[in-house]
Each structure stands twice: as C-alpha cells, then as structure tokens.
Amino acid sequence: MLNESPTSEGTIRYALLLPSPSINNGSAQTSANQQMQTGWYLLSGHKGTERLWLVWAAQAVRELEAVKGLVNPIDKGVISSAAELHEVRELLNKHTQSKAKVKIEKLGRRTEVTGHGDLLLHLLELEHR
User: What is the pLDDT of residues 27-84, one digit of tens each?
Assistant: First the structure.
C-alpha cells in the first residue's frame, strides 16, 4: 500500500504504508483470501487529492522492495531519494494501464479487485476539502 499525497509546495509525496513491521509480521506476502487489517493513517492536511495505491504481485516487486525499509519510526515510509521516487513513479505509470475489475459492495463494506497478470494495481482517491 502506497500513499501519494499533495504537499504545500505543490509537489507529490510518496509514502509506503505497507508492509509494516507491526502488521503481518512485517511481511507483504499474503495468501489467497487472507484478511488483513491495517492501523489508522494520518493523511496529509493539504488540499488536493490523496491517492492510495494498492499493489498485488505474484512475486516481490523490485522497486517496492528497495523502499520497504523506509517504513520505520524515523522515515515514516516517505520516499525521499529522487532515484527511488522515479522508479516507483515509473512502476505505477507502467501498470496503471492494466485494468482491474472492481466490485464494490457498499452494504457489506467490501471491495473486490480482480484482474489478470503478475501485477495488479487499484487506486483509491480521497479528496481533501
């Protein structure tokens, strides 16, 4: 799970939210139909669109593996290296084209995302007002 948020300078900030040392024993690996619950996240207070990227992959994703160590009390998941930011941005842009099928069940408060391929992305957009 990756958060893309606006900043006061008008730039984009990426912060990795999962994997986290306190959730699933720090592993990003999940099995089929495994339920996972995360903690509460404080999103940016800046006006604009907060974008939460959910990424599922059959194998470890090199670009995300390179930054997963940033999920710690000091870095708080924020990707500050220009090279790593570029790599993550390229990954998201490349795989945004692979359309996932999304089924939203509002009554049961459940969203089901399905698709084909080795990597699947789903984007949730939250608007600050």
Answer: 777 777 777 767 666 666 667 788 889 888 888 899 999 998 898 889 988 999 999 9
Q: Which two tokens mark 24? A: 């699933």
* Contact status, residue 126 vs residue 49, Cβ threshold 8 Å: yes
| Long-range contacts (CB closer than 8 Å, 24 or more residues apart) made by 8-13 | 8/46, 13/44, 13/78
pTM: 0.81
Q: Is 114 helix (H, G, I), strand (E, B) or coil?
A: strand
Residue type, 74: I
Written as one string, the DSSP assignment of 88-104 is HHHHHHHHTTSPPEEEE
* Burial per residue of 86-108, b for 16 or more beta-carbon CB atoms within 10 angstroms, e otherwise: ebbeebbeebeeeebeeeeeeee
